[in-house]
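Quick one, T. Sequence first:
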Amino acid sequence: MPWFYSKKEEIDRNTLKQLVIQAGEECLKRICKKPHKILLLPPDITRAHSGAGWITNLLYNYFSPSAEVFIMPTLGQHVPHTEEQNLWMFGDIPKENILIHNWKKDGKRIGTIPAEYVKQTTDGKADWEIPVSINRRLFEEKWDIIINIGHVVPHEVLGFANHNKNYFIGLGGKDMICASHMAAACYGIENNLGNLITPLRHCFNKAESEFLRQLPDMFIQLVMKYNLDGNLVHSGFYCGDDMDTYLMAAMQSMKENITVVPPLKKVVAMMQGNEFFSTWVANKAIYRTRKAMADGGELIIIAPGLKRFGEQDEVDKVIRKYGYAGTPEIMKLWKENEDLQDLTHATAHLIHGSSEGRFKITYAPGYLSKEEIESVNFNYLEYNKAVDLYNPEKLKNGFNTLANGEEIYFISTPSAGLWIK
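C-alpha cells:
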C-alpha cells in the first residue's frame, strides 16, 4: 500500500503543497533520517502542465538547507532543456544542481530481461532480450534518498505513464530505450493504451524487482482531470515505494482520464507551444485520440511550437527519410535498413504516428513548412488559418458547433487523457 494518498474532486495548490511536504517528511522517517545527498527525478518539459516542476522546486527547497540536492529531469531520448526552460519549469533551483541525462552515453547495463520472457509477455510479437541500461549516476554515486515525481496518465507504450518508466525510459540508455519501444510497438499501440499492466510494464516490473532493490527510492504519483469549468486540476496524490502506489493512481486515472465518445468525425487538438516542439512529442495528439476516431475522419493538430520532427538530429533525419508510412511498410523497411535497425525507438515512433490509412491527420505547425509536413505523410493546414477556423480560446473541451454549422470535438490537452469509442 502507499505510505499515504489523497483523492478528491479537486486538490487545491495549498493542499498539494502540504501533501508534498508530508512526502518529504515521510522520506526522512522511512528512508534516511539525516540525508547528505538527495536526487529528485521529475519529468521533462512535456509534462510541465502536471505541476511537477514547482513540486520539484518545493522538494528542493525543503531538503536543501540540510542536504545536497540534485535534480535530473527524466528526459529519455528527448533533448535537454535550455537554461530558460529549466528556469520556467523548476524555478530558482541552481543550474549547477540540474543534471542532464544523455541517453546515448550515460547508460550502465545492470541486467537483462530475457528474450523468452519478452516473447511470453508479448504473445510472441517480440522475441528479443531487453537490456536493462540506466543512467550510471544512480549506481556510481551515493544517494541517501531518491524521489520520483510524475503524472500518471494513459500512455501509448506502457498503458499508463510513470512509476518505473522514470528509470527504464526516462533515465534509460539507448539499447534499453530502443529494444523496449520496438517491443511495445510490435505488440500494438491500441493494445497498450489505457491498460494497467501491459507486456512492457510486466518487463519493467520484473527489472525493477531484480535490479533496483538497492535504491533508496520512492514515488510521488499525480493524477489530474478536467473540472466542471474545463480546467485541468489535480485530483489524486499517491506517495509510497511499492507497486500499489502506481496501481492505485493508474486505476484513478483510468476512471478520470479515459473519455468514452461516439466515433469522432473531426477532432481539433491543441498542443501547447511552450511544451511541444517536435512531432516526436506532439504526436501524442494522435496516440490519445486514435481509438476514438471514426473511419474516414480527420484529426487536426494545432501546434504553434512545432519546429522539427525528431528530438535528435539523427531521429529527425529518419522521420524525414521514411515518414509515417504505416505498420506493414515500416516493418518491411526496418528489416532492410540499418538506420532503422540502429534507431529502433524511431522505427517504433513511425509506427505509432500513422493512422494506418484509417483517418486523416492534419498538422497546423508554427514553423514547419507545407512541403515538410506533407513529406512525412501528414496533411498541412496553415497555422493562422487553423487558428482562425478553430480558435482554441473560443472552444470548449468536447463537442462544439461552429458558426458555419460544422461540428467538431475539441481537446485542449490531449496528453492528459485518452479518448475511446
